[in-house]
Amino acid sequence: MGPGRRDRRGPRGRVVTPVVRQARLDDPGERARIAAFVAAQPGGTPFHLPVWGEATAAGCGQRFRMLLAEAEGELVGLVPLTRIRSPLFGAALVSTGFGVGGGILTTDPGAAQVLAAAAVATARELGCPTIEMRGGAPVEGAGWTWDDTRYVGFVRPLAVDDDAELLAIPRKQRADVRKALAEPFEIAVGRDEAALAEHFHVYGTSVRNLGTPVFPRRLFAEVIERFGADADVLTVRHDGVAVASVLSVYWRGTVYPYWGGGTAAARGLRANERMYFELMRHARQRGCTAFDFGRSKAGTGPAAYKKNWGFAGEPLGYPTWTADGASPRDASPLNPRYRLKIAAWQKLPVAVANRVGPFIAKGLG
After folding, report:
1. What are phi and psi for residue 266, nearest 5 degrees?
2. Are residues 211 and 281 in the same domain?
3. Residue 75's domain spans which residues?
4. Is residue 342 part of a domain?
5. How far apart are the C-alpha atoms of 365 and 355, rounded to whole Å?
6. Residue 88 phi/psi, 5° resolution?
7. Three-class SS of residue 338?
8. Run of H or E including 153
9. Of 94 and 212, which is predicted with more confidence?
10. Looking at the domain assignment, is residue 97 inside a domain?
11. CB-based burial, 241-277: b 16+ in 10 Å, e otherwise
């Protein structure tokens, strides 16, 4: 029995071992039960919800399933699993695909071990030599490793109003935000095809400039459609042209700005500063009380940028399982072997990058 494990006992004191089964996601009652369980857990995220796994799998042509752990009919844990297959990056079982969270979520450490074992069995069944858990506690057992040094997450409360929000931003960054607020930008929030088209162009331009391929346009459309009113696009326009845009998800009082970026003109205009401050304002008006700035790799420019906004980075721990004789995949743009490819990608015309990129990015997961 591992440290910290708590056995569940039945009415006569007997030990109850949780049973794992695949979730019936076509059953509205089952989906409601899962959503309620995720919302009730301190570690729950929107990436644990079936809607996230289904939207991202449909948007990128991958496969999604969810495993549930039950003890005497009570739901005590779950893990969402996306099978990612790519001719360039190989195959992996990811919890959860295209998310920064979504690892094993339980009320019982014993259930976590059972779910981890079931995930390994699923990986073997689907021909995936590795499992990437994006969150959750360390997993005991052969093939499992733990890394809490690579990524940091950035979350802080939203202030009560604009003035307090400005004061929550460190002085140097606050000056840039004030300058951005003085610019005659147009701010648009929407969920229709026009909003998605603007977002795809801006986001695709942004990631091309970073040397990475853009995700399929359908991915963004699926997230917007399936999350409904709990997702939208906020765009900043200058002289009628979109220069910064972000797609966000709203869940349990927190806004998650997820896919965001700006064109080459955005930096000089401070459009990204305006975008994030407007999103804080918009989220507050929706009743949100927290802003999740997402994860960044430790020691990188994006991590420093978020700290400049007054966010303190917290290490994110990820368990990974690797089959005997296999190597964990590494699709990180920081990998030195991708340096020349990134430099070449940055030189592509945006139209070409946005047409070719989705065929590559859908296998990143």
Report:
1. -60, -40
2. yes
3. 8-152+317-329
4. no
5. 18
6. -90, -40
7. helix
8. strand 144-157
9. 94
10. yes
11. ebbbbbbbbbbeebbbbbbbbbbeebeebbbbbbbbb
Angle among Cα 101, 274, 332 to the nearest 5 degrees reads 35
Tell me how far apart the alpha carbons of residues 68 and 272 are, in angstroms, rounded to a whole number.
40
φ and ψ at 28, to 5 degrees? -60, -35
Residue 293 included in any domain: no
251, 146: one domain: no
Do 148 and 169 fall into the same domain?
no
In a domain, 112, yes or no: yes
Element (H, E) at 62: none
Q: Looking at residue 246, which CATH number applies to its domain?
A: 3.40.630.30
Residues 134-192 have pLDDT tens digits of 999 999 999 999 999 999 999 999 999 999 999 999 999 999 999 999 999 999 999 99
CB-based burial of residue 312 (10 Å sphere; 0-12 exposed, 13-18 middle, 19+ buried)? exposed
Tokens 């963004």 belong to which residue? 220
- Contacts of 245-249 with C-beta under 8 Å, sequence gap 24+, read 245/198, 245/199, 245/202, 245/203, 245/275, 246/199, 246/275, 246/276, 246/279, 247/199, 247/203, 247/220, 247/223, 248/279, 248/283, 249/46, 249/223
Q: Are residues 12 and 88 in the same domain?
A: yes
pLDDT in tens, 255-291: 999 999 999 999 999 999 999 999 999 999 999 999 9
174 in the same domain as 273: yes
pLDDT in tens, 95-118: 999 999 999 999 988 999 999 999
